[in-house]
Structures are given as C-alpha cells and as structure tokens.
Specification:
The protein is mainly α. The chain has 25 helices and seven strands.
C-alpha cells in the first residue's frame, strides 16, 4: 500500500464513518488528510520540490510565470530574518543553488536564536504576559513558560507532544517535572476581577466568561475554530454545537490556576517544608511588629527572626527555585457566603471534576441539561462517538484528541501558521478561523499535501521549515511585471515574494545587532524595555498585560489580553515621532557612530552600510553621505537616518 493510501486510511479512521444523522458534509478543514497527486506543469525546470508544483500549476492556469530568483544578498537576509529574527552576518552570502540554501537553513535552525524567534510567534497565540492581573492568586514568574516554549522550538519537540504538554504535562505518565512550565498556556490565562461582595448570580457570569476566554484561546490556537461562538447557541457556520461547547468547557471548569514546582517530589519536598517554616516565622515576626505596646527589645527579636529565616534558606538546597504558573485538578463552584453574610465565595474542590449544564443563551443562571465532558462531535472515535473526557478534569484526553481524532485539522492549522510567517500571508488567510466563516484556502491541495507529509514526518516543525525554505516559491524575488501585478494584485497566487515590514522585535534587534550591542544572554527574568541601555533580545522584554510598553504599543505589538493570530501593520505619526525622538534610537545612533570611530568618512560609510544592510553603498549614496559629512554633518544624525530607514525596516 502506498504512503498516500495509508494516510487516507488513517484519516478515515481518525474521523470515523459518517453517521445517519449527518445532514451536510463536514467543512474541507475537517476532512481526512492525504498526500495529493502532483499537478502537471509546463515549466518542468522550475520546481525544486513538491510545493512548487502546486504553486506553478496555479500560476500557469492563470497565464502567469514565477518571478526571477532573488539575489544572494536578498536570500541571506530573508533566510536569517525568517528563522532567527536577526540580520545575517555582514559577510554572509548564499549562492542560489538549493543545496547551499538547505545547508544555511539547517545551520540557522540549530542556532538558539531560532527558538527565540519562533517562540514569539507562539506567544502571540498564547496571550503571553510577564505581568498579569494583580488580583491573580498565582504569582509564579511567567518567563518559565516563555523559556519552555523557546526550548521546545530549539529541540524540535514534535508538535503533537508540544500541544499535549501545554494542556496536561502534569497528567502525562513519566513526564519531566521541568516540563510543567508548559502549563503556562493555561496558567497564564487572563482572569477577571470578581467583587465577592456581589451576589453569586453576578459572579457566576464572570466565571463563565473566564471559561469562555479559555475556550476561545484553546479553539483558535489549536483548531482554528471560534468555539466561543457556541456558548449561546449552535455555531452558525462551524460544525460545533452548544453541547460541544459545554462538553469541553467542563474541562476548564475543573481546573484551578496554581503555582507548580518544576522539580521532582524528592527535590521539592524539603523546599516545600522549608518554605512552610519560613512562612510561619514570618507570621510571628509580622505579628510582633504590630503588637502594642511594642516590646522594648523589638529590634532584637525581629533580627532573631530574620537570622532564623536566613539560616533555613541557606541550609535548603535550591530554596529559591521558581515555581511555574500552571493548573491543578479542582472544580470551581460559586456559592453564597455563609449565612448572615452578603456576597459570594469561590469554592474550589481539589481533585474533583464537574460536568456543566447547558446555559440558556450563555447565562449560567439559566441552566439546562447536564452535558458530560467529551470531545467535539465532529470528530468521532473508532466507535463512532466522540471521545469521553472523564479521567480527572479530562485535560489529558482533550489534548490527545486534538492530535489524534482532530489531527487533520490541527495539522492544517499549524502548517498554515508556519507558511504565514514565511510568506506574510497564510494559504488560509484567516489563520485562526478555519471554519466556513473564514476565508477559503488559496491552494487547498498544497495545504493538504504539506499537512499530510508534516504528520508523516513526525510532526517536525524543522522539517516543515526546510520544506518551505528550499522551494523555488520561497526563493522568488519581489520583482513584478505590469501584467502580473494586474492579474495577481494581492499576490494570492504567489507570483513573487511580497515585501514585508519587520515586526517591532526584529526591527529593534536588527538595530542592536548592527551597532554591535546585542546581548544574547538567553532566558530568565525579563528586562524593562523603556531602558534605552537595555540591549537583550526583545523577546525577553517585559510585557505587561494591562499596560504595554510604549515602543511595543505604537509598533503594532498585539494586545496580550487575547489570542492574536496576525500582526496588524500601521503607519502612524507616532511611529515617525518615535524614530525622531526616542531615547532608544538616540542611544543606537550614538553606538553606531562610535563603532565606526577612528576611520575616514568613506570607510565609515562603507562599514555602516555593510552592518545595516549587508551591502556596499551605491555611488549616489556614497556621494550624498560624504557631501553631508564633509559639510560638518553629525555622524550620530547620519546614523539615525540609516537606522530608521525603510531598507532596515522592510524585508525584500
């Protein structure tokens, strides 16, 4: 049996047979995966791999030809920014043969910089923030999740495992405790303020909205579905019913945000015991400070407590090891306060799970029938029924259903996301909306073929990168003829490469790389982005959920309170004012000018262009630059012009 037939059979088994109740076929994105037959093309010399056959066939069908191949410098910049978010070394050049591109891509994929770049794409989906709501009970550092995601990309953790660990690492038999940091996907979920002086009827609505937020992030991120639309009624376009919504929402109603250790129990037990002792001593110390009248030897007693605390901490190995923002199994019930008191209380019952009732029009105060926890009815298992999610909260079964029963949809979604970041636009232009309400794929057979082979190659993201980057499609230049521009104005057919603007992280990092200041220290505590002297990669900059840094805010960084599948691109006066007046830009301009010191103006000019643009200045650029500098122009101001130029901001 051929591999394509095996995949087709596997897809049938994943989705199960059609049932008599089905009134209409499932959307294309729910259908089984299978490798597609390569379409015939006329220009047989152009394709470099399977991707190119699908792209070229559509171009030829529309009377178009691909753009010429990009030059070596353009490919070097594109490849480096695509994979690492950084410019190439000024001496880097990639000859056009495919073997050289593959070798350079493999080298970049082994760099720690790769994980830093691609983790940021994922963090947009996961609504990551270092500083979450002040009222949240979980206080663990968010950066443990950020660093886990970076590490997962760098070690090419298979995507199916990547998904399961983020939803249920604590429930996987034999899982590593350090991978509990993956639970930050849920543990860092936005929480809403609950004024517990209000009655349970109001607080229940707030709690239901938190469940909906988790459902929305879960559905959009992993399945490309807007599950939240089914809270009040059956989804208007997707094959998702209100019962489906509450069947999965019951899982999220059975977890509690907590701080979880990333050490095994043997190592963590003495730390837990020591911290309990310290907490008790701190309680005694604080009570003593508040005592009235204060004892005469208050300072001595407080100092004694401090010494005792310090001794316990020093004697306990790894005492200061951070815990990770995570979840535990616990069902939440909103109840009235005890008799005689006004308001509500949140009652978490550890180890318990609950099934939710249908809420009439989404109102938890109007419950209907109870819906047992289970997976989506559109993805039945081998027995023709959706998988039950009845072990504990059901998180582990839910995660496995995503990459087993729903594997065709999950694979299509992540393949499309990688394509989007390499080309600026997905094969499905609505990357988190794969239902009928979203846009249809421009090249459905290509998406299916890539997704099927992605699964067959072990869900390896690095394999997928190489497949895309070694295609002739990716190697095209941005040159466009009038005829092509007229027939394919939005480049939906991939008749050339679309020019793209760098996101704020890559732009900031590129400036630091050009000035020689970039600090490549990996991981750990975030730094304050407003500090103009801070030179670490932007992925490690502090992100506040409710108060974004100014540089991020005005340069289209996504709002970390919600899932974000794409970055908007705006051109505003505030961005121009930032380039003219920002202390960060001033500091980089001074650093670039200083890095060129001790040379004549012509040599400095040449070195500046090499550092920033990986090329020599043109004759005209050389003449203008030397004329300005020869008239007493400031090197700092000239450096500022180069740093804020479109050539640095845009990728060809």
């Amino acid at each position: 049996m051929s591999r394509s037939n095996v995949l087709a059979l596997a897809g049938f088994l994943l989705l199960g047979p059609a049932t008599a109740e089905e009134s209409k076929p499932l959307p294309w994105s729910f259908q089984p995966l299978r490798e597609q037959a390569l379409p015939e093309v006329k220009n047989i010399a152009w394709p470099q791999n399977r991707i190119d056959h699908f792209i070229l066939a559509e171009l030829e069908k529309n009377g178009l030809s691909p753009a010429p191949e990009a030059d070596a410098r353009t490919l070097a910049r594109r490849l480096s920014f695509d994979l690492t978010g950084l410019p190439p070394l000024s001496s880097t050049s990639i000859p056009n043969p495919q073997s050289e591109i593959r070798n350079e891509a493999k080298r970049l994929l082994t760099s720690p910089r790769y994980g830093e770049r691609w983790a940021r794409h994922w963090l947009d989906l996961a609504r990551y923030a270092d500083v979450t709501e002040s009222w949240s009970d979980a206080k663990s550092p968010a950066w443990l999740y950020r660093d886990w995601v970076i590490g997962a990309f760098n070690r090419d953790l298979p995507y199916d495992q990547f998904v399961v660990q983020q939803l249920a690492n604590d429930l996987i038999p034999g899982s590593r405790p350090e991978d509990n940091a993956a639970l930050g996907f849920l543990g860092l979920s936005p929480s809403y303020w609950k004024e517990l002086q209000l009655p349970p009827e109001i607080i229940s609505v707030t709690v239901a909205e938190e469940w909906e937020e988790k459902m929305d992030a879960f559905g959009r991120t992993f399945l490309g579905l807007t599950l939240g639309c089914a809270r009040c009624h059956d989804h208007k376009s997707d094959p998702v019913t209100a019962e489906d919504y509450y069947a999965i929402a019951g899982v999220f109603a059975s977890v509690q945000l907590i701080d979880r250790p990333v050490l095994d129990e043997m190592a963590w037990a003495p730390i837990r015991e020591a911290r309990a002792k310290v907490k008790a001593i701190e309680g005694k110390r604080d009570a003593l400070k508040k005592s009235k009248p204060a004892p005469a030897d208050l300072k001595d007693q407080v100092a004694a407590f401090e010494r005792e605390i310090a001794a316990i901490r020093e004697a306990t190995p790894k005492y200061h090891t951070a815990t990770a923002p995570a979840v535990m199994e616990a069902a939440l019930f909103v109840k009235p306060k005890d008799k005689g008191e006004h308001g509500s209380k949140l009652d978490y019952i550890p180890g318990m799970a609950q099934d939710l009732p249908l809420h009439e029009r989404g109102d938890p105060n109007k419950p209907g029938k109870i819906v047992p926890r289970r997976f989506l009815s559109a993805f039945p298992g081998p027995d023709g029924r959706p998988r039950s999610l009845d072990h504990g909260s059901g998180r582990l079964e839910l995660a496995r259903a995503l990459v087993e029963e729903a594997a065709p949809l999950s694979a299509r979604v992540i393949v499309n996301r990688l394509w989007q970041h390499h080309f600026g636009r997905g094969l499905v232009p609505t990357p988190s909306e794969f239902g009928p309400a979203g846009e249809a794929p421009t090249h459905p057979a290509l998406l299916d073929d890539l997704a099927a082979r992605f699964v067959a190659n072990g869900w390896s993201l690095k394999w997928l990168h190489l497949e895309i980057l070694t295609s002739a499609t990716w190697r095209q230049s941005s040159q466009v003829s009038p005829e092509t521009a007229a027939r394919d104005p939005q480049n939906h057919l991939y008749s050339r490469t679309s020019q793209r603007r760098l996101d704020v992280e890559a732009w900031r990092d590129a400036m630091l790389a050009a000035t020689g200041e970039l600090d490549l220290t990996p991981g750990g505590e975030p730094f304050a982005l407003e500090d103009p002297k801070a030179t670490r990669r932007t992925v490690y900059g502090l992100v506040k959920r409710r108060e974004l840094d100014e540089m991020l805010r005005i340069h289209d960084f996504p709002d970390p309170i919600a899932h974000s599948s794409t970055r908007t691109e705006t051109a505003t006066p505030l961005q121009q004012l930032f380039s003219l007046n920002s202390p960060f830009i001033f500091a980089r301009s001074e650093a670039l000018a200083a890095s060129l010191s001790g040379k004549d103006d012509e040599t400095k000019l040449r070195d500046a262009y090499r550092s920033l643009f990986q090329r020599e200045p043109t004759m005209r650029e050389r003449e203008l630059g030397l004329a300005y500098l020869g008239e007493g122009g400031s090197w700092e101001l000239y450096a500022q012009v180069l740093l804020t130029s479109n050539e640095l901001l845009y990728l060809d």
